[in-house]
Design goal:
about 260 residues; alpha/beta; Rossmann fold; five-stranded mixed beta barrel; 9 helices; about 30% helix; globular; Nucleoside_phosphorylase_sf; Purine nucleoside phosphorylase; Nucleoside_phosphorylase_d
């Protein structure tokens, strides 16, 4: 939290505003969403802020932005990338952006990602609300005897707001694996047996840190491909990027409308 407070101070200085209201973490396929939320008032290279690093995944942007949320007078802190657990920088680095958002004054965080879908009816380009998660990373961002309740971690209130924007949104349980390799068909079947609907390599650790920091969490996945074994096609990151680009306008508009109502 000391590093997060130092980062928040730099963000306040560079953006000219003492606080932000909502944080957005833009995962694979969500890169254009920040453009549709509102006018970008300031941009900062993330590696110029304490605790942050350059983007390491193709299709992500290493720039954070301060964006006006329509005409509301509120500000969104938009992260163009995230640190993934598989990068080997440790779990503190993974959740640093979330703790910085809390230190910057945010009360809400919207976590987005690109993921594999277990339901055949969810084709590439389908946005799905996250109702809960299963954390298979074998770690937690919380250290010590700090017992945090994760009931309704993915806010039912915010999911209701999202369905006001798009009543057709489905929801499902997100399963985070460590990565960076994709899941095997057997692991995908295991995830389904455990109650999972979506598989990926991010989000759950960030959500836990957000709850610890007192932030309300909305999670939205973009199904970029069928998970291993659901279809007979091999998996590739190029497919993830292509599906995200194809769905960019729809997902960006959806996210902008949701943020405007929060």
């Amino acid at each position: 939290m000391d590093v997060a407070r130092a980062a928040a101070a730099v963000i306040a200085e560079r953006t000219g505003t003492p606080r932000h209201d909502v944080a957005l973490v833009l995962g694979s396929g969500w890169g254009q969403a920040g453009d549709l939320v509102g006018e970008t008032l300031a941009s900062i290279e993330q590696d110029e802020v304490p605790g942050f690093a350059r983007a390491s995944v193709a299709g992500h942007s290493g720039v954070m932005r301060s964006v006006a949320i329509g005409e509301t007078g509120r500000r969104a802190l938009v992260y163009g990338t995230r640190t993934h657990y598989y990068e080997g920088r440790g779990v503190r680095a993974v959740v640093h952006a979330i703790r910085t958002a809390a230190a910057a004054g945010c009360s809400t965080v919207v976590l987005t990602n690109g993921c594999g879908g277990l339901r055949p009816e969810w084709g590439p380009g389908t946005p799905v609300l996250i109702s809960d998660h299963i954390n298979l990373t074998a770690t937690s961002p919380i250290e010590g005897a700090t017992f945090v309740d994760l009931t309704d971690l993915y806010s039912s209130r915010l999911r209701a707001v999202a369905r006001e924007v798009d009543p057709g949104l489905d929801e499902g349980v997100y399963v985070q694996f460590r990565g960076p390799h994709y899941e095997t068909p057997a692991e995908v079947r295991m995830a389904g047996t455990l109650g999972g609907d979506l598989v990926g390599m991010s989000t759950s650790l960030e959500a836990i840190a957000a709850r610890q920091a007192g932030l309300e969490v909305l999670g939205i996945s973009l199904v970029t491909n069928h998970a291993a074994g659901v279809s007979d096609q091999p998996l590739s990151h190029d497919e993830v990027v292509a599906a995200g680009q194809a769905a960019a306008q729809r997902c960006g508009r959806l996210l902008a409308d949701i943020v405007g109502r929060i």
